[in-house]
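Subject: Sanity check before I submit

Could someone independently write out the structure tokens for this chain? I want to compare against mine line by line before I put it in a report. The sequence has 114 residues.
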Amino acid sequence: MLRADVETDLELTCDRCAKTFMRPFSLRIETLLATELSGEEETDDIVLLEGTELDVDELVRTDFILGMDTKHLCREDCKGLCPGCGVNLNEAECRCKPEIDPRFDALRQLLDPE
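---
Independent answer below. Compare away.
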């Protein structure tokens, strides 16, 4: 049995606002090791050793990537970027004028008194 605790600080980019931020990351790895399998089918749960050595880098890298979040946010309430002007909505207000869909022009004429 191989047991390892991995701890590091990740430098990530927010998926909403593209701001770089740091986040601590920890992972516990537990893997069964064997030199041979007798009467069992090969499985991803057991790592077969080639001789007496183990490529720990590959094993840790795979578990590390699979243990990471799929979405990285600088904070839970991140507002992201304005799709029109690209301003970071966490830092400033958007100055874009709201665009009205031209398909609604007929409805707008009903509301205008002129």
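---
OP: Matches mine. For the report I'm noting this point. The two ends are 80 Å apart (CA to CA).
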